[in-house]
Amino acid sequence: MPAFNLPLLYDTIIVDILNVFCTYSYNGFNSTIDSKVFSRMVASQIWGDHETGKLTNDEAHAALAKEFKVNIDDVRSAMIGAITTLSPRQEMVDLIRSLKSGRKIYAMSNMSEHSWNMIRHAKPTHWDIFDDVFISGSVGYRKPEMLFYQHVLQKTGAKPLHTIFLDDTQENLATARIFGIRPIIFDSFSNLERTLINLCGDPVSRAKAFLVRNSKKHHSYASTGQIIYENFCQLMILEATQDPSIVDYRVHKEEWNFFQRSSGQYTDAIFPADLDTTFMAWTVIPEVTTDTVKHRIMDRVISDLLDNDGIPLSYFDRNRARRDHGVCVNVLSMFYASGRGHEVERATDYPESFCSRLLERSSLLECRMGDLLKECCRQRIGSPTDPLALAMRLHCCTRRGLDASVDFKKLIELQQVDGGWEGGIIYTYGLVNITVGNRGLTTAIAHRAITEYLSKFGPTSS
Predict the structure, then answer these.
(1) Is 144:170 a contact under the CB 8 Å cutoff?
(2) What Å distances lie between residue 130 and 45, 103, 287, 427, CA to CA?
(3) Measuring CA to CA, how many Å separate 198 from each of 10, 100, 404, 413?
(4) What pairing do the DSSP bridges indicate for beta strands 227-228 and 220-222?
(5) How far apart are CA 318 and CA 323, in angstroms?
(6) Which of 30, 32, 219, 355 is the most buried (most CB within 10 A)?
């Protein structure tokens, strides 16, 4: 695919100092002023005038003492005490440093020049991370006033659409949004970390690193926490990545079993081979068995494993006479890929899921169903769903030539810090109400979908 510099769509990050980059604790020092009164003081217009240089330290302390009917020495002690507890968050320092390469990092905070001088001399480390620091006491305006933002943008030359703004106050973020700056609320470090990395990191390389780092360990897992050792998701991961080194499956010479150990989990101990896994394996790994074996098994399907509607059964066991849309698609895919689609033509009206996989193997079915599939994809763009279904939908839309930018954005937002995505629900054990997911599968399909989208539409479309 073309080399898109997606991470550097945002080349500037503006960070609040007091409550984002740093933390302080009112309980960390002794004060005779109640914490609620202290909070009202620092939110008052008096303190706002101090933070914009209109009042000196002494004038602000005197005015606060008068307004809140407390001793001026207690006010002074409380304000100095708060500054002494201020300390950079190490995890925030590490995060910003990890994203600094190729970017400008600025601080923008409401505080007086006096407070800033105390802070930077008392805590001299880490301030080198910023290319510049903008303090309301020097500028004469404070957040959320628009003139403060205008000043910072003018001095830095930052382009709003390529700038991220980190703050813990919604009204400050609202002003940033007016300028077209991308705001991120600091409600917890974990949330901010994931959002910021997703905006600044490369989703493709991060997803690939996750898949490689967890090679041979991309097992499915039940909602109970138990690992499900099965072949089917391994084959789906292989199809999405085309990388055999990251998957772990058990090869069968003829019929394949869904479970790797041929014994069921949360189901019958002796579990029969199934058409779904068998035909998926043969389309993903054509060389895994001979054409003679494939055609012999397909002959058996025609003679013994179709129901009265001509729809393939799910298992190589007539005593489990069940049918499924997904199984039908994978059986049809193999028959059409082998030039025998006409033998199962009656079943082509049955599938309602995974149709894109089937149409990619038959030009005849593409002509017959392609426009309908495209319209169905178009209608579903933007619909809420889990990460797995979202990645599948983006893949299908891109293959159909649909620019599902809203799904592209949402999928990137859902990427986790480790580069993977949450598993979603692949299937459910109905009788025991247990769901099964697979982070490797979701990540593999998301990696493919994002790569395809960027190759076809580029990052500017998003």
Answers:
(1) no
(2) 29, 10, 56, 48
(3) 11, 14, 18, 6
(4) antiparallel
(5) 11
(6) 355
What pairs with residue 221 in β-bridges? 227, 437
Interatomic CA distance for residues 173 and 14, integer angstroms:
11
User: Which is it for the CA torsion 249, 253, 257, 261, positive or negative?
Assistant: negative
Return the closest-CA partner of residue 204 out of 462, 26, 34, 447.
447
Please compute Rg for the chain using Cα positions: 30
Nearest-angstrom CA–CA distance, 340 and 63? 89
Give the containing element (helix H, strand E) for 268. Answer: none
Q: Which two tokens stand for residue 218?
A: 């991309």
Distances (CA, A) of 85 to 22, 80, 197, 439: 10, 9, 28, 41
Please name the residue that has the structure tokens 């080198």.
128
Distance CA 82, CA 227 (A): 50
Q: 32: exposed, middle or buried (C-beta count within 10 Å: 0-12, 13-18, 19+)?
A: exposed
Sheet holding 220-222, edge to edge: 227-228, 220-222, 434-437, 427-429
> Rounded to the nearest 5°, which phi and psi values hold at 68?
-105, 5
For residue 164, the one-letter residue type is: I
Determine how β-strand 22-23 pairs with β-strand 104-109. Answer: unpaired
A 10 A CB-CB count for 225 gives 6
> Would you give per-residue pLDDT tens digits along the chain (462 residues)?
344 456 568 999 999 999 999 987 766 555 688 888 998 999 999 999 999 999 999 999 999 999 999 999 999 988 888 888 888 999 999 999 999 999 999 999 999 999 999 888 887 778 999 999 999 999 999 999 999 999 999 999 999 999 999 999 999 999 999 999 999 999 999 999 999 999 999 999 999 999 999 999 999 999 999 999 999 999 999 999 999 999 999 999 899 999 997 678 888 778 899 999 999 999 999 999 999 999 999 999 999 999 999 999 999 998 888 888 889 999 999 999 999 999 999 998 887 666 888 888 888 888 988 999 999 999 999 999 999 999 999 999 999 999 999 999 999 999 999 999 999 898 888 777 899 999 999 999 999 999 999 999 987 544
CB 273, CB 255: distance < 8 Å: yes
Measured CA to CA, the distance from residue 342 to residue 332 in angstroms comes to: 10
C-alpha 288/C-alpha 87 separation (Å) is 60
